[in-house]
Amino acid sequence: MKDTEHRNRFFREYRDHSKVLAKVICEGFGKDSSIFGLCKYDKGKLQRNNPKIPEIENIGLAREHLKNGYVGIWSKKEEAEKVAIGAYDNIENLINQYEKIVSDTIPKSFFIARNDEYSPDTPDFLNFYHKNLFNMLLFNEITYRLQGKTILSPAVYEEDIKTKDNKGYETSVRKHLLLHRGSRIAVGDEQSIKYLLEIFDSLVSKQSVEEIVKKYYELKNKIDTNTTIDNFYIEIQAICKKISQEGDVLLGKCKLCPKKNFFDYLKHVCKI
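Above: the chain's sequence. Below: its structure in token form.
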């Protein structure tokens, strides 16, 4: 009788233990966990986060259960990580190539604007361009071209730009601007701005640049349609559902698993 009570108590404790860790598994390894990271070109900058297990409470215990209790599922995770990292490396290399081509094409007479501030502290107003914005708008325009959409060329405008003279007093100078889809890309003298416009238009139709953008989307699609990643998330969801809704328990073990009659319990659960 006492053995039965002990065993029943152990079963209850292990089910409670499983329910607690199931929530951790769902949060730390589920579809909303971003466990496989990301890599994308956004707003003219490469954003890359490599695969990483999130640092949340009890994540180490959940990891141990998955690693030694669900070997096949854990293998899918490791395989998916390799695919993601490989694709991220290729994307980063492509973006580096893209930005180098663009940077090498921009005349050295153009300075890179800082935080959208185009006015220097001297009345000798030089040529400035917003590097990230230029790269982003160019990348987007090539994307539209690949999608068969109508592409737009930037436009040149004149405007009075506020600046400061040598004594620190506010003044204004008449300068030319390069605008594209409502965004100010650059400001400077007329000849330089019109030349920058020619550069933008030539890069949009440059085959080597177009191939880079095309390859970028191919790699992105490879990650987004990776069946190993999808299957991993599906199996994680199934584990969590069985435990939280169907009263099942976690396979495997961790350092906080109830230890008494543990192997008897596994025999009971696995029917061996």
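The mean pLDDT is 86.
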